[in-house]
Design a protein that fits this description.
heterotrimer, A alpha/beta, B mainly alpha, C mainly alpha, A: Rossmann fold, 8 strands, 27% helix, B: 6 helices, 77% helix
Chain lengths: 205, 243, 218
């Protein structure tokens, strides 16, 4: 399990936001992305998750390795906690949601419809989804939003267990998760204004 | 050897179209003036339809161009999907309002012709109805361009719509023939000479068609230039927001 | 895919009334027609196949924008796009779920509404068959339209403008099949044609819709 990124340029709305990004992430390691708001962390994560094509550069990783978690949790309010999780387990072809429920302290809530959860509980459910995917490479975009201190440390513990099992994680966050991780500040990779809008044609500018 | 794809470069397109436009407009104007004057004043009345037949000099060319404009948009969309040349996508966008105008002219002149001939402004004849449906396709295509902010996303989605729409337009055409056999006279022009109208009507009609084709090309060039400029403004705006 | 299908069905049933809305709309549209054209049973018998088909088509249109909009808003669509099932399969599954929650109930309810419009006795069987064969095409074409407009703020109205012209052939063959059935004429040709449209749409449109979704998620 190795994610290798070389000389990557990512664009938002056709405008390059980051260029020349390169790093390597191996199994058991975590990489924290830092940078001010609007610096392109989300765009970088979405590109690596395969939701948008990169403008330049190469990304190499094993097939079907990524589990992505964005700002929105993808939770269906009318389904219960267990139904939400079981759905994702079926999509990813894994079995058993008990471990994920336990890891994020959701066992007591499992028959409750997701619309009756608090914001922090919803977030925990969203993160528990990662555990049921069985994917080795987690890509997380601000995973700790609306989590309380206890939940953050619980998440840190889940993350540690994931890394100990040979998994890897790429996380955009500003708070200390209590794990040993490399830090990549994206600010130096900010794209310089170019002659064109970058996408395809120099002659539009 | 110069490749045809060079014109996909916006700069090159702007330079070439700038030189070509005066010629295109002059030729289109001349062909239309000759064709229409010849057709309206120097052809005999039809022995059955009287002078009303002369509306074919507007009706037939505009109906042809209504369809040809859609075909051109389809080709331009395919080029955009395959080769991702911006000029191609913008030309498709530029052609739609022209195509819809030709469709409206064809429908209106058809109604004006139909009133004395069939005794009704509108009949649910397969040909008339297909033009009505074509009109709706144009409206949907233009509305989708309007609705999407990002120009590349808009180009992608409208191209997919144009492709799928073309398939359904063909199916609709056959569905309509199945639905109602219709009143409309047979094709005015076809490769089979026996079927054709008399030469005395035919030659001015050809000149009119040439005029409409030239006018269409000139208008597409003209509007594509506008779209390229608008795209440039958008690119400049993006760049300024970045700095 | 089965999981996605059952999830969509469960959501449609639990969404609080969304499930029955299309049926209620179909009933109201059909019931309004006699108020417009008068109670003459001869006229109603003649126009019944067309009215029932147009009513079913409009009822189908109502729920199209929900196919992707909710999943887009809550982030599920992003997650599905990164999941191991191909997006084409997601589109096809969602179209199937839409048909089961909309087209199938409409097909089953249509004969009852046929009574209201005094449909000829021979028409009931063919009305049901034509809707069963044609409404899947309506769902698939509608799913394509929904994929095109998923990111747009006022996508609903635009969706109708894009989808309705695409519905023309299905409507023509469906209503013609019902009419011929009601009048006891040969039904093979329109039946083959409407089945052909449904199969062709099912084979090709998921690819176009998935392409549109990928563009919209970018």
């Amino acid at each position: 399990m190795e994610l290798k990124v070389a000389d990557l340029t990512v664009a938002r709305g056709g405008v390059p936001v980051l260029e020349g990004v390169g790093f390597t992430l191996r199994g058991g390691e975590a990489l924290i992305l830092r940078g001010p708001n609007g610096s392109g962390k989300t765009t970088l994560l979405r590109t690596l998750a395969g939701l948008q094509p990169p403008l330049e550069g190469s990304v190499s990783m094993p097939a079907e390795a990524v589990a992505y978690a964005g700002h929105a949790d993808g939770i269906k309010p009318t389904l219960t906690v267990a139904e939400n999780l079981r759905f994702w387990a079926a999509i990813y072809g894994t079995h058993g949601i008990a471990d994920a429920l336990a890891a994020f302290d959701l066992a007591a809530l499992q028959t409750r419809p997701a619309q009756n959860l608090s914001a922090g509980q919803k977030r925990r459910l969203g993160l528990a989804r990662l555990a049921v995917t069985g994917r080795p490479l987690w890509m997380l975009d601000e995973p700790t939003v609306s989590l309380d201190t206890a939940s953050v440390s619980r998440f840190g513990a889940a993350l540690k267990a994931h890394l100990a099992g040979g998994g890897a994680a790429l996380i955009a966050t500003h708070i200390d998760l209590g794990i040993a991780a490399q830090v990549l500040d994206v600010t130096p990779f900010r794209a310089r204004p170019r002659a064109g809008t970058g996408a395809f044609d120099e002659a539009f500018a | 050897m110069a490749s045809v794809w060079e014109f996909a470069n916006p700069r090159k397109f702007m330079a070439v179209s700038d030189r070509a436009l005066p010629w295109l407009f002059t030729l289109a104007g001349a062909a239309l003036a000759i064709g229409l004057v010849w057709g309206f004043f120097f052809t005999p009345d039809d022995f059955r339809q009287g002078s009303t037949v002369k509306i074919i000099y507007l009706h037939v060319p505009s109906a042809m161009m209504a369809i040809n404009a859609w075909i051109m948009m389809l080709l331009a969309s395919l080029i955009w999907i395959v080769r991702r040349h911006h000029v191609s996508a913008l030309a498709a966008k530029a052609a739609a309002p022209i195509g819809v105008t030709f469709t409206v002219i064809a429908l209106a002149t058809g109604a004006i012709w139909g009133q004395p001939m069939w005794g009704t402004w509108w009949a649910w004849d397969p040909r008339l109805t297909s033009f009505l449906i074509l009109f709706l396709f144009y409206l949907g295509y233009m509305a989708l361009w309007q609705a999407i902010e990002d120009p590349d996303t808009a180009a992608d989605l409208t191209s997919v719509l144009c492709l799928v729409g073309s398939v359904f337009a063909v199916i609709s055409r056959y569905a309509l023939i199945f639905w109602n056999q219709g009143l409309h006279q047979g094709a005015t022009l076809s490769l089979d000479k026996e079927e054709n109208i008399a030469d005395v009507f035919y030659f001015p009609l050809l000149v009119c068609i040439a005029g409409f084709v030239l006018l269409f090309i000139a208008l597409v060039f003209y509007r594509t230039r506008t779209e390229i400029r608008a795209r440039r403004l958008y690119a400049i705006g993006l760049k300024e927001r970045m700095v | 895919m089965l999981a996605l299908f059952t999830r969509d069905l469960r959501l449609a049933i639990r969404a609080g009334g969304g499930f029955g809305l299309a049926l209620a709309f179909f009933l109201i549209v059909t019931a309004l027609v006699p108020f417009g054209v008068g109670p003459d049973t001869g006229v109603l018998t003649r126009i019944a196949p067309g009215i029932l088909w147009v009513g079913a088509l409009l009822a189908c249109l109502l729920s199209l924008d929900r196919i992707f909009a909710l999943d887009y808003e809550d982030g599920s669509l992003d997650l599905l796009a990164t999941a191991p099932i191909p997006l084409e399969a997601v589109v096809a599954t969602k179209a199937a779920a839409h048909w089961v929650t909309t087209g199938l109930p409409l097909t089953l309810a249509a004969p009852l509404l046929g009574v209201l419009l005094n449909l000829a006795p021979g028409g009931y069987l063919w009305l049901t068959i034509s809707l069963a064969a044609g409404t899947p095409a309506l769902s698939i074409i509608g799913t394509f339209g929904a994929a095109l407009t998923v990111g747009l703020k006022r996508g609903g109205l635009l969706l109708s403008l894009l989808v309705l012209p695409l519905y023309v052939p299905t409507l023509i063959f469906g209503a013609e099949l019902t009419r011929r059935g009601a009048e006891g004429q040969a039904v093979e040709t329109p039946l083959a044609l409407i089945a052909g449209i449904t199969l062709g749409a099912a084979a090709l449109l998921p690819f176009a819709a998935a392409a549109a979704l990928r563009v919209n998620l970018r």
